[in-house]
Each structure stands twice: as C-alpha cells, then as structure tokens.
Amino acid sequence: MENYVKENLYKLLKVRGITQCKLADDAQISRQTVHKLLSRTVDYNPKLSTLVAVTNILEIDLPLIFNRWDKIPISGSFSPHTVDFYLEKISHIIKKFTEKEAHTQFQLTVPESIRQSTIINLISKKYPDTYLSTIEKLAKNIDITINELLK
C-alpha cells in the first residue's frame, strides 16, 4: 500500500478525532492491523474488507483515500458501503472492459501478473474479499486508477 494512502488515513483519523484504538474497536479489526495500515515502515497488503471497514468509520468513500490529500473532501454526505458493493463495481468494470474493448480475460492477467482464476472469481463474485494488491494490479492492467475502478 502506498505511503500517501497511509498518510491520508492518518490525517483522517486526526481530523475526525479518532484514536487508533477506537478505530480498531469500531472497525472490528486488531490494533496490529491499524498499526500496519498507518506505518510507513511496514509493507502491508490489506484486504478490501479492512479498507471498507476503516473508511466507513472515517466516513469517507473508499476510492477517495487514493487521491491526493487536497482532493479529499473532509465534509459532506456519506453513506457506508459494503465489500460486496465494491466487488460488484470491480466485476462490472472487468465485464465492461472485456466486452467493450474486445479483450479476453487472459489479457487482464498481464503485464501485472494476476491469475486468470482470480479474474474469473472476481467476475462471478465467488470471492467474498480480495487484497488491495489484486485491485492495484487490475487497475494497472485495465489502465485506469484505483479510484476509477472503485467509484
């Protein structure tokens, strides 16, 4: 996970006045997970469910944490989302990419190596969760930003 995403999460904690312990408790994740999410020295690959839980507590739409800090709206309306909500978006983008662009699922597996079975499972929503690294690779292979993939 990129350091700017970690910095965004840290700044949102400060702006919202939420401690790391409270975030862990409210998001129902361990304190160690919160530490890994925020630490610049730990290379951490969180699951989508972890990021959804954290961003829901921070009252920010998940795609926005991948923006520059000055592009993140601190106030405004917010509706919490589920992992299924984002997996549906990912599935839709993959389907749209393979149909509209006449690409095959295999073409989504390169240049960033993603297993074809992972692509199939994301389309069919067989996985209840996925890792951020898979989302990053998928966005790169489709040539869009993570923000665009998740909005």
List the helices and strands and how they pair.
Elements: H1 3-16, H2 20-27, H3 31-38, H4 48-57, H5 83-100, H6 116-123, H7 132-142, H8 146-150
Explained architecture:
This protein has 151 residues and is mostly helical. It folds into 2 domains: 3-71, 434 Repressor (Amino-terminal Domain) (Orthogonal Bundle), CATH 1.10.260.40; 83-150, lambda repressor-like DNA-binding domains (434 Repressor (Amino-terminal Domain)). Helix content is 54%, strand content 0%. The protein contains 8 helices and no strands. The longest helix is centred in the middle third of the chain and has 18 residues, at 83-100. The chain is elongated and about 50 Å long. The two termini are 19 Å apart. The mean pLDDT is 91.
Q: What is the element string, with H for helices and E for strands?
A: HHHHHHHH
- What is the CATH C level class of the largest domain, in words? Mainly Alpha
Distance between the termini: 19 Å
How many E strands? 0
Question: Superfamily at the CATH H level of the largest domain?
Answer: lambda repressor-like DNA-binding domains
**Main beta-sheet strand count, sense and barrel state:** none
Taking Cα atoms only, what radius of gyration do you get, to the nearest Å? Answer: 16 Å
Low-pLDDT runs of 5+ residues are none
CATH architecture of the largest domain: Orthogonal Bundle
CATH fold title of the largest domain = 434 Repressor (Amino-terminal Domain)
Determine the number of helices (DSSP H or I, runs of at least 4 residues): 8
pLDDT averaged over residues: 91
Beta content comes to under 5%
How would you classify the helix and strand content by structural class?
Answer: mainly alpha
Helix-residue proportion? 40-55%
- How would the global form be characterised? elongated
- Total domain units: 2
